[in-house]
Amino acid sequence: MKNSYNLSAEALLELYKTMKRIRMTEEKIAAHYREDNMHTPVHLYIGQEAIAAGVCANLSKDDKLFSNHRNHGHYLAKGGNLKAMIAELHNKETGCSKGYGGSMHLVDNNVGFPITSSIVAGGVPIGTGDALAASTLGEGRVTVVFMGDAATEEGVVYESLCFAVLKNLPVVYICENNLYSVGTHLLKREKEQRVSKKFEGILPVYTVDGNDVLAVYESSRKAIEHARYGRGPSFIEYVTYRLRDHHDTKTGVEAGYQSQEEWDSWKEKCPIAAFERILSKENLIDTDIISGIEETNKNELNDAFRFAEESRLPDVGNLYNGLFG
Ligand SMILES: Cc1ncc(C[n+]2csc(CCOP(=O)(O)OP(=O)(O)O)c2C)c(N)n1
Ligand SMILES: [Mg+2]
After folding, report:
1. Residue 198, Cβ neighbours under 10 Å: how many?
2. What would the pLDDT profile of 3-32 be if each residue is shown by its tens digit?
3. Which ligand does the CA of 150 lie closest to?
4. Among 61, 82, 272, 278, which is least packed by CB within 10 angstroms?
5. Number of domains within the chain
6. Does some domain include residue 318?
7. Separation of CA 180 and ligand 2 centre (Å)
8. Tally of CA atoms within 13 A in the half-sphere of 175 that contains its CB
């Protein structure tokens, strides 16, 4: 049965569960990071969960997602395996990238997660090339490329967008504008706070509240359908904020480049708390249901960490396997 949001109760709850699972995973990673068992930088996704959850709810496993350094949420929302992700962060052979990649290089062909580039904007031309392959081979699938606001400052993004338009490729570019590149605010780098403005005139662009999971779901649904039915690429800018430091577990306030007022105002706009209010108004959630979801996530996370800790490191003899040569 559909409600006023035009989504079934199950679909709404699924969006909530995905966000909650990502948040709890990131919090657990943060809590264990200082123990020094994860020899990898971690770029936490806390505060941005609505984007991965809303976009990926419109993708099938065959659709491909090209991510960036902040990829944990993208991987989980795309159907990635939690145990394999946590093992990868521990550099274990049971990791989704066999322990070779660490946090910034999650790869899983089982769920349409073919490569993750930590070069800012690196995934944009690669994803565009993948969309060319999908279109040439008539595969009927869609490619989604995630990038940050700073990635839009790289020339290769213009080249990729123009090429995708020229070839009418089935690709959706998702920009998570969290206002920062490491510790530098967007307005210290660019004249405009709306990064999609730069691409107007190249392809259809949209700017959407990235902390509103329903707005994310609906806007990406339209763009993904547009691409799937041969009507070409589009670019969506989701405005959001990360509530932790660029690649550490503290906050940007503690790191010294975000003001407490700014951080507080975005904490107020937490995408999960906002959606909880909507779901409880619709009588779809209550404290018991939330506790049940939290309990499930907690158990699943404990299992995943145990699995990672008990797994073996990769064999040094295999170091050169799986490389392009
Ligand atoms: C080409 C390149 N330049 C610089 C870096 C160092 N670097 C890593 S992440 C990052 C900031 C990226 O910001 P943004 O694209 O907005 O993504 P966010 O971290 O905010 O999610 C930078 C400058 C890099 N990895 N690649
Ligand atoms: Mg950014």
Report:
1. 18
2. 667 899 999 999 999 999 999 999 999 999
3. 1
4. 61
5. 1
6. no
7. 4
8. 30
Angle between helix 82-89 and 9-33 (nearest 10) = 20
Classify residue 253: in a domain, yes or no. yes
List of residues 6+ apart from 33 with CB closer than 8 A: 42, 249
Q: Are 255 and 194 in contact (CB under 8 A)?
A: no
In a domain, 4, yes or no: no
Task: Calculate how far, in angstroms, residue 241's C-alpha sits from the geometric centre of ligand 1.
Answer: 15
> Is the minimum distance from the CB of 44 to ligand 1 under 6 angstroms?
no
Indicate the helix (H) or strand (E) that contains 264: helix 260-268
- Rounded to 10°, the helix 9-33/287-310 angle is 50
Which ligand 1 atom is nearest residue 120's CA? Answer: 26
Q: How far is the CA of 182 from the centre of ligand 1 (A)?
A: 7
pTM: 0.98
Q: Is 178 a pocket residue for ligand 1 (Cβ < 6 Å)?
A: yes
Instruction: Report the phi/psi class of residue 244: left, alpha or beta, with left for phi > 0 and alpha for psi in -120 to 50.
Output: beta
Rounded to the nearest whole angstrom, what is the distance from the C-alpha of residue 184 to the centroid of ligand 2? Answer: 9
Residue 50 is part of a domain; what is its CATH number?
3.40.50.970
User: Which residues, chain by chain, have CB under 5 Å from ion ligand 2?
Assistant: 148-149, 178, 180
Domain extent for 20: 9-311
Residue 311 to residue 42: CA distance in whole angstroms: 20
Q: What is the DSSP string of 187-247?
A: GGT-S-S-GGGGGTTTS-EEEEETT-HHHHHHHHHHHHHHHHTT---EEEEEE---SS-SS
**Index of the ligand 1 atom closest to the CA of residue 247:** 19
pLDDT digits (tens, 9 = 90+) for 63-79: 999 999 999 999 999 99
